[in-house]
Amino acid sequence: MIKDSVAGTLESNDVLVEISNNDSGRIINLESPVKDMFEEDILKVVNNVLDEFNIENITINLKDQGALDYAIAARVRTALKRGLK
Question: Structure pTM?
Answer without folding.
Answer: 0.95
